[in-house]
Automatic annotation (TrEMBL):
<keyword id="KW-0436">Ligase</keyword>
<dbReference type="InterPro" id="IPR002301">
    <property type="entry name" value="Ile-tRNA-ligase"/>
</dbReference>
<protein>
    <submittedName>
        <fullName>Uncharacterized protein</fullName>
    </submittedName>
</protein>
<dbReference type="GO" id="GO:0006428">
    <property type="term" value="P:isoleucyl-tRNA aminoacylation"/>
</dbReference>
<keyword id="KW-0030">Aminoacyl-tRNA synthetase</keyword>
<dbReference type="GO" id="GO:0005524">
    <property type="term" value="F:ATP binding"/>
</dbReference>
<dbReference type="InterPro" id="IPR023586">
    <property type="entry name" value="Ile-tRNA-ligase_type2"/>
</dbReference>
<keyword id="KW-0067">ATP-binding</keyword>
<keyword id="KW-0547">Nucleotide-binding</keyword>
<dbReference type="InterPro" id="IPR009008">
    <property type="entry name" value="Val/Leu/Ile-tRNA-synth_edit"/>
</dbReference>
<keyword id="KW-0648">Protein biosynthesis</keyword>
<dbReference type="GO" id="GO:0002161">
    <property type="term" value="F:aminoacyl-tRNA deacylase activity"/>
</dbReference>
<dbReference type="GO" id="GO:0004822">
    <property type="term" value="F:isoleucine-tRNA ligase activity"/>
</dbReference>
């Protein structure tokens, strides 16, 4: 694919700890339950605001034999656990909707009381599949097209944890000023997740990733403000103004510029 390169990135399985005393359908989840999610872009995790599941996907609730932890993963993705476990039960994704979980990072504008009722919850999304990962998609509204559309539909907060230079902002003090795609940054993210008890596993992952054709650096999916001008209202003024301009070479006056003004349809 043009503009893409085959690279090996480090993917990560993240344990999102559920708030205590909740249920998945009729299954009590207790105080030590997690939803397991997978991502190839660890740098987006500080911007997490929600988790997405498939309403019609079957999920399995398992109990890890050694630790007693409860995990929720898609039924056909249980092999990612690679641990001894007992099946507690199975539910469709629609039984997981609105479950609440603890944030990975404390980003004050996202954790503010006015957004607390809708952030850090599980929501349904049509784009969720079980082809890869765990059947649970971590959602960072500002760093992916599907994420953004889901966030817009739900009214989730649109807040950047990364600046336009690709560095973490001061809202993420653990990573402030670090370039998000640097290897040392990923290492710090994984160390932080491990310290917080949210790191399940990291794996190398070969995939296609976009790179800038000019400077050959990795591209970030990044939502930013844009301006759109309704040019149809300015068309007549542009044509009139064009007549008073001395163009060099002269043929451009009645060529590309004038025709461009006439053809404006926006």
């Amino acid at each position: 694919m043009q503009g893409y390169k085959e690279v090996v990135d480090t993917s990560v399985y993240v344990k999102f700890k559920l708030k205590p005393r909740q249920k998945a359908g009729n299954i009590s989840l207790g105080n030590n339950a997690y939803i397991l999610s997978w991502t190839t872009t660890p740098w987006t995790l500080p911007g997490n605001v929600a988790l997405a599941v498939g309403k019609r996907i079957t999920y399995t609730v398992v109990k890890i034999v050694d630790t007693g932890e409860i995990f929720i993963v898609a039924d056909n993705k249980r092999d990612v656990l690679n641990l001894d476990y007992k099946v507690v039960g199975r539910v469709k994704g629609d039984k997981l909707i609105r479950l609440r979980y603890e944030p990975l990072f404390s980003i004050k504008p996202i954790t503010a009381p006015k957004t607390a009722k809708i952030t850090y919850r599980v929501y349904p999304a049509e784009f969720v599949t079980t082809e890869e990962g765990t059947g649970v998609v971590h959602t960072a509204v500002m760093y992916g097209e599907d994420d953004y559309e889901l966030g817009k539909r739900l009214g989730l907060p649109q807040y950047h944890t990364v600046d336009e230079n690709g560095n973490f902002t001061s809202d993420v003090p653990e990573l402030r000023g670090l370039f998000v795609k640097a290897g040392k940054t990923e290492k710090k993210i994984f160390e932080y997740l491990k310290k917080q008890g949210n790191l399940f596993r990291t794996d190398p992952y070969k995939h296609e990733y976009p790179f800038c054709w000019r400077c050959d650096t990795p591209v970030l999916y990044y939502a930013r403000d844009s301006w759109f001008i309704g040019m149809s209202t300015l068309r007549k003024k542009l044509i009139t103004a064009n007549k008073g301009i001395h163009w060099i070479p002269a043929h451009t006056k009645e060529g590309g510029s004038a025709n461009g003004c006439v053809m404006l349809k926006i």
